[in-house]
Amino acid sequence: MSVTVRFAPSPTGRIHIGNARTALYNWLFSRKAGGRFILRFDDTDSARSRREFAEAIEEDLRWLGIEPDLVVHQSERFARYEEAAAGLRERGLLYPCYETAQELERRRKVRLSRRLPPVYGREALKLDDRERAQLEAEGRKPHWRFLLPNFDDDPFSPRRTEIHWEDVVRGPQTVDLASMSDPVLIREDGTFLYTLPSVVDDIALGITHVIRGDDHITNTGAQIALFEALGAQAPAFGHHNLLIAADGEGLSKRTGALSLAGLREAGIEPMAVASLAVLLGTAQAVSACEDMDALAGRFDPASTSRSPARFDVDELKALNRSIVHAMPFEKAAARLAALGIAGPRAESFWNAVRGNIETLADAVEWWRIVTEGPPETATFSQEDRAFLRAAFALLPEQPWNHQTWHEWTRAVKAQTGRGGRALFKPLRLALTGRDSGPELADLLPLLDREKILARQP
């Protein structure tokens, strides 16, 4: 059987690096198995779901290097969910409940006060047709719960009912259905919650493995029961640990925390995001992978820790620097050209500056320095100005090569008696307007002699 996985975001905002972790776990799992990856938008909540967010999520995934084999929108599949719900109702496995949120909260507190598990007591099953009709005449609309198979003959006498599965990430797992409330599948307004559409689509799409965050572990027991109630075998499940922010807070689409769009706009490379999102919180050392194939070779879901993984932006920036510093010109050329960095000097320029920049876009500032000169004139002491006039008088004629800088500075040292920082700092400031940066032996051959002389203070 071919491996088929799905990534199922709700298009209610931009996805962040925590969502990317789930997408990448599924993508790499299917890639290693030669399987299929389905992007399924869980957009049944019409009030919050937006088409523009769905399009943005697809853009973010493409940026990461993820290309779905199939894209599905749950908002186009309601007939399937209605059919499944009707079948469950006919068998008494989906039953109407009329309690308000306040009434349910009062019952929960009562059970807690009696040291009982705060689960729903199935009081709605005791209502007869007359009582239900009366509640509806009062204007109450039912929500619908799935009757968990955690009892023998009497649903009011639940017994321990263990659901077992071999988790792809965490190994053997067990959930007791008696410790859970019957899950609500349909709201009072008739809209579906996540569970029923998800299970129906997993069956219809032939999903073989569901890999997601470990905040869904308890839900998995009820979902396996629902698969079986719908006459299907449940897929294999895997639950990876979650990423949390450096301050310990969870990541949220609503706050835009560490969104892929924001990271992309900040100049972060996709493989820096992918490498950290996949390897953080695992037994693998976190380092930048060159491409998805390399990352797939290191991907091992079973090596994932059970504890949340703390995401640090500084670690991401360090990975990004390592990628930029190692990036060959052939890989950077098209992007540099889009930034206006092109021509016969472009390759030598890139090789000169890439080790001194944080993001590829940072090269633009150095390109301006090379082609136009420093944006601001540095301030020098009278003594340094005199030194620079003597140094510029010794500037060799072009053409220049990588030895020119050393030949020039040796001549300047011999003429002025200056050496070390006293020699190099004023020269660097005069040539670039910066007190640090690329090796001037690499940068000097890219500069124009007449423009350099024009920079003499």
UniProtKB/TrEMBL annotation:
GO molecular function, one term: glutamate-tRNA ligase activity
Domain Glutamyl/glutaminyl-tRNA synthetase class Ib catalytic: 3-317
Motif 'KMSKS' region: where in chain: 250-254
Main location: cytoplasm
Domain of life: Bacteria
InterPro entries, per database record: aa-tRNA-synth_I_cd-bd (IPR045462), aa-tRNA-synth_I_codon-bd_sub2 (IPR020751), aa-tRNA-synth_I_CS (IPR001412), aa_tRNA-synth_I_cd-bd_sf (IPR008925), Glu-tRNA-ligase_bac/mito (IPR004527), Glu/Gln-tRNA-synth (IPR000924), Glu/Gln-tRNA-synth_Ib_cat-dom (IPR020058), GluQ/Sye (IPR049940)
Domain (Aminoacyl-tRNA synthetase class I anticodon-binding): residue spans on this chain: 346-455
Keywords: Aminoacyl-tRNA synthetase, ATP-binding, Cytoplasm, Ligase, Nucleotide-binding, Protein biosynthesis
Motif ('HIGH' region): 9-19
Binding site for ATP: K253
Gene3D superfamilies: 1.10.10.350, HUPs (3.40.50.620)
Short name of one Pfam family: tRNA-synt_1c
Catalytic activity annotation: tRNA(Glu) + L-glutamate + ATP = L-glutamyl-tRNA(Glu) + AMP + diphosphate
Compartments it resides in: Cytoplasm
E.C. number(s) listed in UniProt: 6.1.1.17
Chain's role: Catalyzes the attachment of glutamate to tRNA(Glu) in a two-step reaction: glutamate is first activated by ATP to form Glu-AMP and then transferred to the acceptor end of tRNA(Glu).
Family: Belongs to the class-I aminoacyl-tRNA synthetase family. Glutamate--tRNA ligase type 1 subfamily.
Self-association state and partner proteins as the record states: Monomer.
PANTHER family from the UniProt entry: GLUTAMATE--TRNA LIGASE (PTHR43311), GLUTAMATE--TRNA LIGASE, MITOCHONDRIAL-RELATED (PTHR43311:SF2)
Name under which the protein is recorded: Glutamate--tRNA ligase
